[in-house]
Design goal:
The chain has 434 residues and is α/β, with parallel strands linked by helices. It is 35% helix and 22% strand. The strands form 7 sheets. Strands 1, 2, 3, 5, 13, 14 and 15 form a 7-stranded mixed sheet that branches. The protein has a 6-stranded mixed sheet with strand order 18-19-17-16-22-23, with helices on both faces. A two-stranded antiparallel sheet has the order 4-7. The radius of gyration is 22 Å and the shape is globular. The mean pLDDT is 96.
């Protein structure tokens, strides 16, 4: 049996799967938590990854590996390979003004054309501008900029800070993949090249960026094992799910994401759809919402029930909840871009205001927010034929039954799994076949 490792280094935790390269069957696994917060010392990720690999039986019998991970986080390195400051993660919003400034300087249309993105605080380019504006001494020392999965790949291959790693601080050995590069705001998905003019506009000077490996390219670690380019988390999940053109993945977690596998690049100057690439050579247009599974949490609390009972109540009501409608913007919303919005409940009559209808309205309202993402993808010509429903919210029977009615697509609900790590393992297996 040939074994490979797939890693998912997410915001909250690190997961490692050792799988059979031929069948994808999970042979061993491990998991560890990451620190809370929106600004994190990358060393915590490295410590967790080493511990989890050890818990999963180590790498001595493994022939290839790849790392998937959270997108957008800024890992700034000096010339000696040392991390200059804590990494600003995707969910750190301090760079919102930097996003607005960059958009004003270049224009939304131009940025969408050049990078597939209109800056928001999530993206790496805005964090570099924040660093330039608020910590100029740190910005001046930046010799290279990596993303979380780039940096972990580099460390696991044996590179790292001077005097602390066997292969030393060889910054030229930083590598990434198309999917994670496409979330930076300074990479062009049409040409496959970095846009250094935008990088300089953000950071104030040029810096080394990880080499972008193609879908079948690989490098080696210190023991000669093949190492794939890895993936951003959404692209890793798509690969792990086996999603292809025509598929749209609807992930119902704390927040919601809707992303489709597409043969064609998308450009959306409104910024609603992020024009990401995937890790197979295709594209992964994505829409994010702020309000997803927590909508169900909130209404379950109001009704004083658990999620199983909320589901039963919702299915006891008729479609449309007798006119009761929940607009679920409990924490504002990103799609549509209404950061200061609040939730509202309308259509209340003596007849419609029942526990069953309120539960139904919660499910329909949450799914309607995700359906708006599907509409945005359709508006850009992305073909959508099947929805794959994943995440904690997908375990609700009411969500499973109501989703096809609201989304307007056939819906499949894969078994729960660590799909980012599975995708990384699948990539690792594929580079062995090259």
């Amino acid at each position: 049996m040939t074994l490979v490792i797939g890693v998912d280094s997410s915001t909250q935790s690190c997961k490692v799967l050792v799988t059979d390269a031929a069948t994808g069957a999970v042979v061993r696994q491990g998991r560890a938590s990451h620190p809370d917060g929106t600004s994190v010392d990358p060393e915590a990720w490295w410590t967790a990854l080493q511990a989890v690999i050890a818990d999963a039986g180590g790498v001595d019998d493994v022939e290839a590996w790849a790392v998937g991970g959270q997108q957008h986080g800024m890992v700034a390195l000096d010339a000696d390979g040392r991390v200059i400051r804590d990494a600003l993660l995707w969910n750190d919003t301090r760079s919102a003004q930097a996003a607005a400034d960059l958009t004003a300087e270049f224009g939304a249309d131009e940025l969408a054309r050049r990078t597939g993105l209109v800056p928001v605080a999530s993206f790496t380019i805005t964090k570099l501008r924040w660093l330039r504006d608020h910590e100029p001494e740190n910005a001046a020392h930046v010799a290279a900029v990596a993303l979380p999965h780039d940096w972990l790949t580099w460390r696991l291959r044996g590179f790292g800070p001077a005097g602390e790693s066997p292969r030393g601080p060889v910054l030229d050995e930083l590598v990434t993949d198309r999917s994670d590069a496409s979330g930076t705001g300074y990479w062009n998905p049409a040409t496959g090249d970095y846009d250094h003019e935008l990088l300089v506009a953000a950071l104030g000077h040029d810096a080394l960026l990880p080499r972008v490996l193609g879908p079948d390219e690989w490098v080696t670690d210190a023991a000669g094992r093949r190492v794939g380019g890895g993936a951003g988390d959404n692209a890793g999940a798509a690969l792990g799910l086996g999603a292809g053109p025509g598929d749209v993945v609807v992930s119902i977690g704390t927040s919601g994401t809707v992303f489709a596998v597409s043969e064609e690049r998308t450009i959306d100057p409104t910024g609603t759809v992020a024009g990401f690439a995937d890790c197979t050579g295709r594209f992964l247009p994505l829409v994010a919402t702020l309000n997803a599974a927590r909508v169900l949490d909130a209404i379950a609390r109001v009704l004083g029930v658990d999620h199983a009972e909320l589901s039963r109540l919702a299915l006891a009501a008729q479609p449309g909840a007798a006119g009761l409608q929940l607009v679920p913007y409990f924490e504002g919303e990103r799609t549509p871009n209404l950061p200061d919005a609040t939730a509202s409940l309308t259509g209340m009559t003596l007849a419609s205001t029942t526990r069953e209808n309120l539960a139904r309205a919660a499910v329909e309202g949450m799914l309607s927010g995700l359906a708006a993402g599907l509409a945005a993808l359709r508006g850009l010509g992305v073909p959508l034929e099947r929805a794959l429903l994943i995440g904690g919210g997908a375990q609700s029977e009411a969500v499973r039954q109501i989703a096809p009615l609201v989304l307007g697509l056939p819906v499949e609900v894969p078994e729960p799994g660590e799909y980012v790590a599975l995708g990384a393992a699948r990539q690792a297996a594929s580079v062995l076949a090259v």
